[in-house]
């Protein structure tokens, strides 16, 4: 770790104390602004009413700035030593990466394998803990208070976390009080016979609170100073304690702007007092009106990571998963999916929005706004290059990037009864969805649908088709004719009837609706044709007819 020495003379710094040899500021009032240019950062020191800035050159380009506040001891400012060590990246590890004690050890080794990095670490709940907490909550509603302690999922959660602390040889007290509180909460739910969305969020927050405490305790045990509430550290690094402010939409909170400065201040202030690797709970926030724990929607830890990346202006956001990056399709649907080395934020956002579980749908927003590259890596195979997601990329040789399948979709066919003009009709249709707070692409339950249909039938003839799936073709819509021609040929050859088609507003997505039971076969056939036949790039350089279509014969694998 390199250190640069900065001379800060009192009279040059603080006009209000020009002739004074003492300086009434505390370390918490020292702020730092990281600049993007390597080997330089801006040191800004202020007491609220006055401040100064200095450009500092150094030999180390990565790191958090740490001011050694010598004047606190001596009562006089002579000079400050500034260590050029600021946070370089955020590393988010999903549930699959921290599912067991063994995995936690490997993740710790992985973090230590990058000594040049100074990471902020974000963790999800261990393995399937979030699902188990939700199931336990649902069972508690109807099981009766006396049976709440016996809920199977509670036992699974207890067993997993107690076994993990035992195997990692850390003090079990980091989890025991939490596990007791969890049992009490389930009894409370059983007593009330009700699980509100607010309680649901509080309930699932136990998963991330537990995993981060275990991991921080383990890092401390192996000599890496880490920050989360443990025996060593008294600071809570739960997202709702360090500045993540959200709307009060329980189970789906939106991060508010106030989060960025709050998180940056808290992390830098704590680092300056006492440098330690922050171990932060993913997925969680604090509702700005209620002050209650909120969650960011399933898979929300990716969003926690990108929010921290933007808040701190980091060089890179890393999301570590159980796959070699973003793949050409979900490998559980078709196993010959291959990694996509480069993606734009738009492509990644579209892919996530249309259901690729690999990234949280909102997670690209902070990264795009902060223009911070996101790297998707495999914690089971760290050597694999993964996927790098940036603002732009060379699309000249790209036709299709990935195929995404969203299952169990209901299609609504809405035909005007001509009581309203065309413009008024569409406006009314969309206002009905808006009033019922339903996103047209994700109508979640049949109960919601009943309401929509009831309202729509006042102005239209409505036809409801269940059991459909959306296949989204994410790619270069400069080649939309080629994509459509090939896709339709593949599906026609398989005898599949496409029931609806739409092109996304961001122009990187073409969506096709087919029957759900035929969808997996369609993805496989499309994958073979677009990614395995090897003839697409040739088509891009062939001469075109007047209308821009390439001249070719189609070869489709079945
Ligand atoms: N296009 C895709 N590329 C990679 N993985 C995908 C894709 N679509 C769906 N997935 C699924 O996403 C999973 C990884 O995301 P997730 O379970 O949220 O990881 P983690 O919990 O580790 O953050 C993979 O195991 C894979 O099954
Ligand atoms: N634990 C939460 C949040 C999360 O992001 O998890 P993961 O990173 O394992 O997808 C969930 O399961 O939704």
From TrEMBL:
> What protein am I looking at?
Aspartokinase
Q: In which pathway does it act?
A: Amino-acid biosynthesis; L-methionine biosynthesis via de novo pathway; L-homoserine from L-aspartate: step 1/3; Amino-acid biosynthesis; L-lysine biosynthesis via DAP pathway; (S)-tetrahydrodipicolinate from L-aspartate: step 1/4; Amino-acid biosynthesis; L-threonine biosynthesis; L-threonine from L-aspartate: step 1/5
Q: Which family does it belong to?
A: Belongs to the aspartokinase family.
Question: What is the protein's species of origin?
Answer: Brassica napus (Rape)
Q: Which reaction does it catalyse?
A: L-aspartate + ATP = 4-phospho-L-aspartate + ADP
* Every Aspartate/glutamate/uridylate kinase domain range: 88-378
Using the record's annotation, list all stretches that form the Aspartokinase ACT domain.
471-530
Identify the EC number(s).
2.7.2.4
- One family from Pfam that matches here is ACT_9
